[in-house]
Design brief:
252 residues; alpha/beta; Spore Coat Polysaccharide Biosynthesis Protein SpsA, Chain A; two-stranded antiparallel sheet; 10 helices
């Protein structure tokens, strides 16, 4: 049976929101919220934080030790190499590549993409090759073979910065499955931001988690999340002016 490992690219450095990885979100750190969401998957076998060997990230490593969260420390600049080394160390067959700035991952969607990759024989599956879903519930799934080829062959700086980019740039080599939200479907809402790059994103994230903590529903679905935002448009307005970051994870 294939071992499925979710790797969370995490570091303390961030231009717009420094040290966000360990900021409090309704009683837990942002990193814990990401770990918790990924752990709701029925297919992921292990969640691993992939942080760096920089002394700035000692806080992340120490936090993971304290919370018994599996972690790996690698290159600060070669994100692809860091993720590859983590996946190899933890004997991953399939990798769910994740970022520490996405506390609203959709475990059901992730499981659909993992299943699609396995059943269809794909090297890579995702739901953001075209933007249809809310930003921040996107998922990137790849085989270890595809990740290993990327790590060994990628030469361009942006391919080392952004784990799946070598696969995107060589789509003729790697069979890719992309899932799009159906037109006019409830989750076809690419204008909604559910990622944390800016202070406004963090403000929204804290308010959303305070609500779902309050109603004792931390297994909330993406549909419930979008429905709550639709019912409270002032919340979605908090970060609606924020721009999409570059493809490479700012938190990587």
């Amino acid at each position: 049976m294939n071992k499925v490992v979710a790797t969370i690219e995490a570091r303390m450095g961030a231009r717009r929101l420094p040290k966000k990885t360990l900021m409090d979100v309704a009683g837990k750190t942002l990193l814990e919220r990401v770990v918790d969401r990924l752990s709701l998957s029925e297919i992921i076998n292990q969640v691993v934080v992939a942080t760096t060997t920089s002394s700035d990230d000692d806080a992340i490593a120490n936090f993971c030790k304290e919370k018994s969260i599996a972690y790996w420390r690698g290159s600060e600049t070669d994100v692809l190499g860091r993720v590859y080394d983590a996946a190899k160390h933890f004997n991953a067959d399939i990798i769910v590549q994740s970022g520490a700035d996405c506390p609203f991952y959709d475990p059901e969607l992730i499981d659909v993409l993992i299943s699609a990759l396995q059943i269809g024989g794909y090297a890579y599956s995702a739901n953001d090759m075209t933007l249809t879903y809310p930003e921040g519930i996107d998922a990137h799934i790849m085989t270890f073979d595809a990740l290993e080829a990327s790590a060994k062959e990628a030469k361009e700086e942006n391919e080392r910065d952004d784990t799946p980019r070598f696969i995107w740039n060589n789509a003729e080599r790697f069979p890719i499955f992309n899932l799009e939200a159906a037109p006019k479907s409830f989750l076809n809402r690419p204008e909604i931001r559910l990622t944390v790059d800016y202070p406004e994103d963090m403000e929204l994230t804290q308010k959303l988690y305070q609500y779902f903590e309050g109603v004792n529903n931390l297994h909330f679905t993406s549909k419930e999340l979008v429905a709550y935002l639709d019912a409270n448009p002032e919340l979605a307005a908090i970060n609606s002016h924020c721009e999409q970051q570059s493809a490479a994870y700012v938190n990587a």
